[in-house]
Amino acid sequence: MGRGRQKAKHTKVARELKYFSPDTDYGALERELTGAQHDHYDEEMSKWSEYASDEDYVAEDGQKRA
């Protein structure tokens, strides 16, 4: 008898998930897709040359690369 109730519960949950439609924040989606939040990333990448130079680069095999 337990299997019938278990299957019914799974069916109910699956149906709720299938037809659930949350409110969509289209403004946040637009900001994410247009890359408005990537300004901070670009700033950090421009500072990267200050932290590392070609002379300091050592490959995984232990040899310096130019």
Report on the structure:
This is DUF3073 domain-containing protein. InterPro entries: DUF3073. By secondary structure, the chain is mainly α. The protein has a domain at 38-66. Helices cover 61% and strands 0% of the residues. The chain has helices at 2-19, 26-34, 39-51. The longest helix has 18 residues, at 2-19. The N and C termini lie far apart (72 Å).
Assess the beta-strand content as a share of residues.
Answer: under 5%
Q: End-to-end span in angstroms?
A: 72 Å
How would a crystallographer describe the biggest sheet? Answer: none
- What is the mean pLDDT? 77
Structural class by SSE content: mainly alpha
Extended strand count: 0
> Helix count?
3
- Shape, please? elongated
Radius of gyration: 26 Å
Query: Unreliable runs, pLDDT <50, ≥5 residues?
Result: none
Please trace the helix and strand order, writing H or E for each element.
Answer: HHH
The percent of residues in helical segments reads: 55-70%
InterPro entries: DUF3073
Protein name: DUF3073 domain-containing protein
